[in-house]
Amino acid sequence: MISVESLHKEFGRRVALDEVSFTVPKGEIFGFVGPNGAGKTTTIRILATLSSADAGDATVAGIPVAEDPGEVRNLIGYMPDFFGVYDRLTSTEYLEFYAACHGVARRKRPAVARELLELVDLSDRRDVQVDTLSRGMKQRLGLARALVHDPAVLLLDEPASGLDPRARIEMKELIRELRRMGKTILISSHILPELEELCTWVGFIDNGRMAAAGPMAEVRDAVVSGRRLRVELADAGEEEMARAEVILREHEGVLDVERLPDHLEVTVGPQVVDDDLLALLVERKLRVRSFAVIPGDLSEVFMRLTKDQMN
Prior knowledge:
Blueprint: E1 2-11, E2 14-24, E3 29-33, H1 40-47, E4 55-60, E5 63-64, H2 69-75, E6 76-79, H3 91-101, H4 109-119, H5 135-146, E7 153-157, H6 165-180, E8 184-189, H7 192-198, E9 201-206, E10 209-215, H8 216-223, E11 227-233, H9 238-250, E12 254-259, E13 264-268, H10 274-283, E14 288-294, H11 298-310
Parallel strand pairs: 3-8, 3-9, 6-7, 7-8
Antiparallel strand pairs: 1-2, 1-4, 4-5, 9-10, 11-13, 11-14, 12-13
Helix pairs in contact: 3-4
């Protein structure tokens, strides 16, 4: 649905994007990950037809962004990190105004506004002025604004920025619902735990360069070499922990063992069968209290990718 190939953008002498390439398949939620200033917003603004690339190509549903920006705007809904609101308009008037900007027929605008306010759970605020809404409500109203013309693709730049925990949960559930409705969604954020829960695809950008992109699990597995296991013994004394470490290190396929105060973290290669490793510890008369896989997370992936680019 979204294709970005070799995008390059400079601001004066600063290179903002350096050969950025990635794809977002139809119906997926793509997490665009990177620190502030990495190039996320610049890329999104190019996709939203608000900025132009110096080189490279970007398409939405096969339509070149640079060649047919009008048609691309019909396909996308853009929610920026910070957006202006017309404070003296009510929520309904606000959405009807933007529906008019997108060419929605006058007779359809009240229904569009009503349905979107219901979708984002603001029906009880339909006649309330925008300036009286909380930050979380304004974010949800901003998302409703991006949906007034029923776009197939959503570009969301830091949609949870500044939200309290409850509002962030509500925003995540709303984004999941939009995916169930068939939307393709690109989310820019640096809040990695929330993206990990939400996204199906991910792309990492740092200093204007893509470090990795693809399905969430594939990227995570490719970057974090080896699986990690947490082994907790019933007796966490020095002698038993040391003996368990020796036994584990002798097993073929064990790449590393880290001894922590109350458990061992074991890194293993793909040839290791977890049950065999557990059985070995039991055979050696070690009392194992817990034995579990430690899932890799986006924070670890991003730190490794950033480190690789810095070296």
